[in-house]
Design goal:
Length: 265
């Protein structure tokens, strides 16, 4: 037996070309709209998990991880609300019946287009989720999961134009992966640039940008007022994003594994 756990997602998740996304055999997302004509984008998600004592936690971890990947890959942060859980005899019935969020209804798409350019970003998230699904618990328990969470927070802060928070969150994401021993910033800069760069010229350029970013982070942390150079923050953000992405692809989930791999190269 299984449990179906329902969620309401708020955020720009599904494109207009996709109304229903089968993320995996146990995870479905459907576009939804508010009956009260509330502004914003919504989706209903259904997660099927084995009927065991911690089923709510395991269902929530799958939603968490999908939205973290979505923020990492597409630069958009979505949030969710948890609904009820109901018995489910087979995963084939996932999403066929709904008991939560009566103020929202499914949006029916008559001509979905999975081949559209608009569909590609969320389909890439789906593909990545499917590749990593067996490791979700391990990822979120390790330092790469912490880096993912702070990168998500940075994306969320950016959407609210809270750019000082963006800098702090990005710095913590980088430190979760590469900061271990003194001199902390120098070692972080060396490791991150070596891990991400394709050649020595690029490594030097990334190292320079990360150094500038950490000077900005120090100014913010110590309370000095300074206009935040958004172009520099976006550049550092992209380097940190690539580092998290590569750590996931390489299955280097813990800080110890990642630092060992970088330092030996």
């Amino acid at each position: 037996m299984f449990k179906q756990v329902e969620f309401l997602i708020q955020g720009d998740l599904l494109p207009m070309t996709i109304g229903r996304l089968q993320v995996s055999p146990s995870f479905v997302i459907e576009e939804a709209t508010s009956k009260k004509d509330l502004g914003g984008f919504f989706a209903l998600a259904f997660v099927g998990v084995k009927d065991e004592p911690d089923f709510f936690r395991r269902a929530s971890l799958r939603i968490d991880f999908f939205l973290l990947l979505h923020a990492l890959m597409n630069g958009q942060a979505a949030t969710y609300f948890q609904g009820v859980a109901t018995p489910l005899s087979t995963l084939d019935d996932l999403g066929k019946n709904r008991f939560s969020f009566s103020g929202y209804e499914e949006v029916v798409h008559l001509d979905e287009d999975m081949q559209s350019e608009l569909s590609k970003p969320i389909l890439l998230v789906k593909e990545r989720f499917f590749q990593l699904e067996e490791d979700i618990d391990k990822i979120l328990d390790e330092h790469v999961g912490l880096a993912l969470s702070y990168y998500y927070s940075a994306v969320q802060a950016s959407s609210k134009s809270k750019f000082a928070e963006v800098v702090i969150d990005l710095a913590i994401a980088a430190e979760a992966l590469f900061s271990k021993e003194q001199p902390y910033t120098a070692n972080l800069r060396r490791r991150l640039s070596s891990f991400v760069a394709q050649d020595e010229l690029e490594r030097k350029e990334i190292s320079k940008k990360i150094d500038e970013f950490y000077r900005l982070r120090g100014i913010i942390v110590h309370g000095e007022k300074k206009e935040i150079p958004l172009a520099d923050v976006r550049t550092a953000s992209e380097h940190i994003r690539k580092a998290i992405d590569k750590a996931l692809s390489s299955k280097l989930y813990s800080k110890a594994e990642l630092i060992h791999e970088v330092d030996k190269s």
